[in-house]
Amino acid sequence: MTAESVEHRGQWPVPPQGGYTMDDLFTLPDLPPHTELIDGRLVFVSPQRYFHFAAIDLLVSGLRRTLPPTCGSHER
What we know:
The chain has two helices and four strands, in the order ββαββα. The strands form two sheets. It has a two-stranded antiparallel sheet with strand order 1-2. A two-stranded antiparallel ribbon has the order 3-4. It has one domain. By secondary structure, it is α+β, with helices and mostly antiparallel strands. β1 and β2 (12-13) form a beta hairpin.
């Protein structure tokens, strides 16, 4: 299935019968910049904001502080 044969309704592309391919991902017009292809489906993800990055960093730091000293060779 090629991008030319994909039918559009509104502003979101309708997936073909067998799902999208990598070629479709590169040739479909007007996709958001953070579009991913997972199992033949287009997934529209938001760019990561600073708050999201900071929350993940705090969570990882907190989890690392709770590791026992004998757990792997991760620096603390």
